[in-house]
Amino acid sequence: MFPVRSVLLVVALLAVGWGTDTDAAKRTVCTITVNSPDEKEMFRQRLPEAQYQFVELVERGRPDWLASACQQGIHCDVLIISGHFDGSTDFYSDQVAASEFLPVAELERAACSESCPGLFSQLREVYLFGCNTLNPGAIKRMTSEVGRSLGRAGHSQLDAQRLASVLDERHGESSRDRMRRVFMNVPVIYGFSSVAPLGPTAASLLGHSLQSGSISEVGSGRANPRLLSQFAATSMVAISGMSESDPHAAYRREACEFVDDRSSPAAKLRFVHGILQRDMAEVRMFLERIEALFAGLSESERQDFAFSDALGEIARDHAVRDRYLRFAEDADQPQIRVRMIELAGTLGWLSPSDQRAELVRMIDGLFERKSVGAAEVDMICSLNRNRELDQERYRLSLSAAQTDNVPNAAVLACMGSTEGRARVLQALTSRDDAEVEVAEVYLGYWPITDVDELRVAVSEITRMPDPGAQIRALDILARHRLSDRQSLDELARLFPSAASLDVQRAIAAVFIRSDYQSLPRLEIAQLLSQSRRKSSGGDDIIDILIRRLQTP
Q1: pTM listed for this prediction
Q2: Apex CA 339: angle with CA 337 and CA 340, to 5°?
Q3: C-beta separation of 397 from 445 below 8 A
Q4: 10 Å Cβ neighbour count for 265?
Q5: Strand runs labelled E in 219-333
Q6: 55 and 106 Cβ atoms separated by less than 8 Å
Q7: 366 pLDDT exceeds 50?
Q8: DSSP-assigned letter for residue 89
Q9: Most buried of 35, 96, 200, 222, CB within 10 angstroms?
């Protein structure tokens, strides 16, 4: 990740004049290539050097490439961004060796701060070569607790539905909305509403569109009909950046309040206090931005007197606190409730012990509603990485039948229960896929380290009658990187009698990730060679293991 302010400098690199008077008449094409260079190279081949000059902003291997580029004082007329896009936050590369990526949040910060206004005030065209870069579908949607909150605030059902619709339209932002905000006032933004063509295909289409009659259109600030025609079979669209008269311009100004570097952290926090005083339905829609604000603060900023004073004002606002906690308690998604509880602690509304109590109340509610599954187990295990919730386990009251339920037992195990752990380990060999999934999630946090537990688990796995369930259990076991000789010997004895080739492969996967160097390697290799089931697919993991065992 770039340093927070380094990306702000990207705007400056596009703001300042470039080169000599001779070059001044040229249009400058800036490229940010975080994946394939195919699109950039096609533009370079087709556009006359006498009329266009290219500047690649990414310096490979240099994490502060944006800051470096900014210092060069480059002005851009056209910006081409090439990279995979996750549909929401980042342009990234699928190349293992590549470390460069481009967070949209940092571009948004740069646009809002206007620290380098040239990028957004003088750009004529932006090309976004990535899937879903201009997808109009909302990333966030209103949930039912929002409607309930509006009802509690005194709105009629009809008014609540209307207000919920307004909030949904305003805050449910799509990637298209976000790009329009980032590239404000840019006349033409090209991108894709769904799947984009891969680099070589996109380059080929560009080559057909960039003919002599349409070359002058590049950088003109007018949508190129020939380009759109060539990409007609794809999801390419052309839109314009947001203007001050846009209906959503007011929301852009509010969104910018969170990231504008010209505003102090204390001023941002006072703005957040104003947001918190609104209806909690709207506060919920700002949750990610409030969290991001606090996550981006340095320790010195947190210790600043003005910031502490603003935070104290929020902590003393008991009316807002009560409404906020009531809304959090009503959240449909436990993950959202957890985040709101954590934010309440950050805002000074809940002490650490209060937060733990709220989490226990949430867990009790999950038990009561019988709504614990693998996702909830994952969440609670993650929350208790530091074991602070262990001391709260005794506040939970469950019947024997409830504790025998595997997901419930896994939650208790996440909170330090030895009985719960024993029940989860039994579930490792269950024929119920949902129970095995819960065991898999739990063991990802608290794996088997006790040799007696391990031997019991291996013994149970070797006796499983269902090959499919046995394979899944073996896959989970493989992640433990076994070193216990007795357990490995028992798995070796299972190999000749394995019910299928896939079971044998699963056993080989356990061995290949284990400390097999301590085994009689030639004997195991011979056993595998003689007992392996026939395969028509060529070399597989069994063959790889045999070769490794035979290598001195």
Answers
A1: 0.80
A2: 65
A3: no
A4: 20
A5: 236-239
A6: no
A7: yes
A8: S
A9: 35
